[in-house]
């Protein structure tokens, strides 16, 4: 009975991620049509992440009190309303308003992760969390491809489909998902996540003061900073560097590029368990940072499609191995009852990167510093590699990586 809600939560998360990834490739072009500069496009992405950082802890704590299902519905309603507003936006300020509403209610994935914690036993939890990883893999393959295919009918058409998917996820939550409350034995610090407030600096400092853990958190921040700067500027970069049949890359072509990266990501994930068992997570982290730096560095010289495809192979391998390997190492570096806290800390670091990275990307591209944008992405990955290689991270008596790999 406890495992039965996993299918509906998978379908709900998949619908949400598909809706998100349909919008991702076309949003910069949609904003540009309404007069946005590259700097304004970067700030548009940053505004969403900033609102998400503000609201995330509040939504999480509220779901701890009233249950996951009501808050999941509230979050989904926000996404649905924001996408309808976005599809009908006739001015740039309405686009900003839509993204702010979406950011303020963007608790879908955090609440879904907490829900999985509530309905699975601790020994099955790592495997159950793979649902979100699978949903991301499918979403980043299918969503951008749909976006590219439909954008020829008008940029509002894929956005309306995204809103429809959000509406389906609301219906699935109402009619298919059993309600649940946080499990008593886990308490507020369990894998569902103790919510750290945005201004709780002393709580953050406690974890950054641990040498092994602080190094891992810094590595994770370097990774998400590189990736956020890359995704925040890729569409605008391709529009200015590449052409297809005589016209600059647009939403259609960028959508297919994102789908190509999603396909490569699924390939990497399919071999990840074997790679962990063969080489270990520390080696994979080093290889991932190195591969990401090479891929982003190659982007600086991209002026045609073949080199872009080669760069995509390197960057997708790096992204595909770094997120799960670093997350695994971070959770191994703390006691079980602290894992929810450090996962929440990881989410906060990711939000900070998604605020800063796209803003930097937009500013550089606005000043025609296209190569510099790619090299900044590569530089973040190189810093992560230097941090990783500077000293071995300690895991403080956590489970060995090999046993964790088998669990996955």
Please describe what this structure looks like:
By secondary structure, this protein is mostly helical. It is built from 16 helices and two strands. It has helices spanning 6-23, 27-33, 38-66, 68-87, 92-104, 108-119, 125-150, 156-176, 201-208, 211-241, 251-279, 281-299, 305-332, 339-366, 370-390, 401-407, and strands at 243-244, 247-248. Strands 1-2 form a two-stranded antiparallel sheet. Strand 1 (243-244) and strand 2 form a beta hairpin. Helix 10 runs antiparallel to helix 13, helix 11 runs antiparallel to helix 12 (281-299) and helix 11 packs across helix 13 (305-332). It is globular and about 55 Å long. Mean pLDDT is 85; it is low at 184-193 and 393-408.
**Could you tell me the mean pLDDT?**
85
Approximately how much helix is present in the residues?
A: over 70%
How many helices? The count is: 16
The assembly state of the depicted protein chains is single chain
β content, as a range? under 5%
Biggest sheet features: 2 strands, antiparallel
Question: Could you give the distance between the termini?
Answer: 22 Å
Strands, total number:
2
Uncertain spans: 184-193, 393-408
Shape category: globular
């Amino acid at each position: 009975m406890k495992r039965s809600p996993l299918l509906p939560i998978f379908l709900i998360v998949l619908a949400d991620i598909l809706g998100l990834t349909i919008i991702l490739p076309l949003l910069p072009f949609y904003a540009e049509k309404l007069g946005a500069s590259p700097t304004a496009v970067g700030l548009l992405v940053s505004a969403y992440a900033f609102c998400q950082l503000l609201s995330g802890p509040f939504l999480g704590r509220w779901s701890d009190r009233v249950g996951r299902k009501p808050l999941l519905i509230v979050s989904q309603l926000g996404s649905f309303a924001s996408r309808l507003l976005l599809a009908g936006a006739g001015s740039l300020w309405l686009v900003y308003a839509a993204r702010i509403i979406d950011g303020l209610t963007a608790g879908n994935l955090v609440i879904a992760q907490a829900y999985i914690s509530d309905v699975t036993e601790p020994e099955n939890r790592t495997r159950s969390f793979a649902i979100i990883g699978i949903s991301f893999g499918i979403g980043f393959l299918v969503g951008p491809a749909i976006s590219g295919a439909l954008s020829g009918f008008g940029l509002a058409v894929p956005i309306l489909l995204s809103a429809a998917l959000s509406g389906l996820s609301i219906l699935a939550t109402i009619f298919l998902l059993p309600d649940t409350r946080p499990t008593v034995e886990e308490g507020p610090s369990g894998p569902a996540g103790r919510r750290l407030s945005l201004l709780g600096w002393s709580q953050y400092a406690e974890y950054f003061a641990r040498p092994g853990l602080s190094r891992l958190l810094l590595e994770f921040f370097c990774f998400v900073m590189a990736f956020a700067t890359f995704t925040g500027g890729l569409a605008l970069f391709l529009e200015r560097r590449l052409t297809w049949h005589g016209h600059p890359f647009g939403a259609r072509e960028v959508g297919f590029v994102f789908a190509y990266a999603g396909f490569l990501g699924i390939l990497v994930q399919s071999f990840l368990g074997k790679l962990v068992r063969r080489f270990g997570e520390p080696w994979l982290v080093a290889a991932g940072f190195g591969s990401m730096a090479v891929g982003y560095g190659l982007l600086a010289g991209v002026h045609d499609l073949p080199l872009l495809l080669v760069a995509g192979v390197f960057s997708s391998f790096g992204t595909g191995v770094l997120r799960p390997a670093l997350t695994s190492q971070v959770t191994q570096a703390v006691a079980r009852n602290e894992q929810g806290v450090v996962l929440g800390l990881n989410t906060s670091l990711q939000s900070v990167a998604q605020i800063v990275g796209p803003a930097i990307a937009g500013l550089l591209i606005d000043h025609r510093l296209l190569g510099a944008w790619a090299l900044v992405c590569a530089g973040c990955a190189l810093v992560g590699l230097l941090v990783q290689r500077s000293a071995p991270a300690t895991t403080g008596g956590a489970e060995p990586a090999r046993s964790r790999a088998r669990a996955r």
